[in-house]
Amino acid sequence: MAGEWVRGPLTLEVTDPEDGSLVASVYQASVDDVDRAVADVQRSLREERWELWERREVLERAADLVREEGPRLARIISAEGSKTITEATREVARTAETLRISAHSAALLEGSTLPFEDTARGSGKFGYYRRVPLGVIAAITPFNDPMNLVAHKVGPGLLAGNAIVLKPAAVTPLSALALHDILLRAGMPPRRMAVLAAGREAGSALVSDPRIAAVSFTGGPTTGDAIARLVGARRILMELGGNNAVLVCEDGDVEAAAAGIVDGAFGVAGQNCLSVQRVFVHESHYERMLSLLARDTERLIVGSKKDPMTDVGPLISEQEARRVETWVDEAVTGGARVVVGGRREGSFYWPTVLADVPGTARIYRDEVFGPVVFVEPFSDVDAALETIDDTEYGLQAGVFTASLTTAMHAVDRLHMGSVLINDTSDFRIDAMPFGGSKRSGVGREGVAEAVREMSEPKNVILNRMG
C-alpha cells in the first residue's frame, strides 16, 4: 500500500483449512487504509507515465518469474486454501499463461480512424479513436483460485493502463501478495497497485468509493447484489457462479461422460464455479451411469493436500463442510438416495453422488460449491434441456451426443455462457470470453474481453480550418 509493504500489526491470521494450523499472519486493512490506497494509486496514474510497451514487458517478465518460482507458489496456494499440491501446481501454470496472454493483448488497445467522409456533416473533419484506461479498478477475488483469478483481473487491468486496488479473499491473501511481489520485481511501478487483506466493511468502502472507475468481482450472487447497490451507475464486471449440468444423450459416450463428471464434480472439492452439479442421463443408461460414477468416485483418494496422490482435499473451512452436509441431509430427508459418499470429517466432505433428488431441494436449485453431484434420468431431450435451463444460473453446460443435430439444438436451446459438446461444464481456457447468462454474471472475463472492459474509446476530432 502506498508503494510500501505494511509490516504491522499482523492481526489477520491465515490458517490451513486441513488442520487449522497457522500458516501466516498479515496486516488487516481498515476503511482508512482503503481511502489511502485509492488516493495513492490514483496519484500514480496522474504523476507516473507507464507506457504500453513497458506494461507489456512487465507482464512478460512476471509470467517468467511465476514459472521459475512455481514450486514455491504452489506451496503457498495449497497451504492457505483447499487445493491439493497437484491442483495448486496446475494453478501456477495457468497464472503464468494468463499473464502471458495479457502481455500479448496489447494490440487490443489500438484504435481506428473515424468515418467522417461517410457523412455530409463530417466535411472538413478528420479524426480517430484510441482506447484509454478507465482509472482506478477495484478488484475483488475469491478463495478457490487465489492466484489465477487475481491474474485475470490484474493482468488485463494493468495492460490497459489502469491502477488497481485488489481485495483478495480474507482467508487466502498470501497468493495475491505473492503475485504482487512478483509484479514489483518484474518492474511494476510500486504505487500503481495496492493489495488490501480486509474484511467486509473495508470491501464495502472500496467499491462505494466515488474515485473507483470500475469494479471487477468474482464471487456469489448475494454479494454481487450488495456490491451493485453500492457501486450504482458505474462499470461492473462480475462472475457469479453456476449450477452446471451435463446432458448424456442416448447416443452419448457413457464411459467418457462418467469419467469427465467425476473429474468435473470433485476437483478442488467441488469449490469451482464450473463444477458439475447436475447430470441428466438418458433412461437407457441411467443404472450404468450410477454404477460407473460410484466405481470411479470410490477410487478417489481423500486426504492431505500435501500428498501428491491425494485427489480431494478439504473444503475451505469446517463451516462450509457442515453447510454441504446440511444440504445433502435435507435432500435425503426429502427422498434423495446417497449412491456413494455422504460423509464428513472436520473440513473434509467425501465426494458424494446422489439419486432421486427432489426438485425442491436446495442442492437441486442452488450452487452447492462442494463435492456433490446428482443424477436424474430423462426420456425426452427437449424436456431435459428445459429442465437444465430452468435455473437462475447460466454459466456452462456439457452435452454428450454423437449427433451434430442434437448438439447444435442444445447449443441453440440453452441460455448459457458456454455449451461444451462431448465434454463437461468443467473446462475453459484463459483466452476465451468467460462468463454466464442470467444470474451467473455481468459482462465477460477472459483476458481479451477484460482488456476491452477495463478500457474505453476516446475520440480525437480535428477540424480543418484552412
Summary of the model, kept short:
The chain is of the alpha/beta class and 466 residues long. The protein is 39% helix and 21% strand.
Outline the structure in words.
The protein is an alpha/beta fold. It has two domains: 12-240 and 440-463, Aldehyde Dehydrogenase, Chain A, domain 1 (3-Layer(aba) Sandwich); 244-429, Aldehyde Dehydrogenase, Chain A, domain 2 (3-Layer(aba) Sandwich). It contains 15 helices and 22 strands. The longest helix has 19 residues, at 85-103. It is globular. The model has no long low-confidence stretch (mean pLDDT 95).
Number of contiguous helices: 15
Shape: globular
Backbone structural class: alpha/beta
Low-confidence stretches: none
User: For the record, what CATH class of the largest domain applies?
Assistant: Alpha Beta
The proportion of residues in beta strands is 15-25%
The CATH level-2 architecture of the largest domain is identified as: 3-Layer(aba) Sandwich
Main sheet properties: 7 strands, mixed
Integer tally of domains: 2
CATH topology of the largest domain, what is it called?
A: Aldehyde Dehydrogenase, Chain A, domain 1
Q: How many strands in all?
A: 22
Rg (CA only):
24 Å
- N- and C-termini, Cα separation: 52 Å
Provide the spatial order of strands within the biggest beta sheet: 12-15-16-11-10-18-19
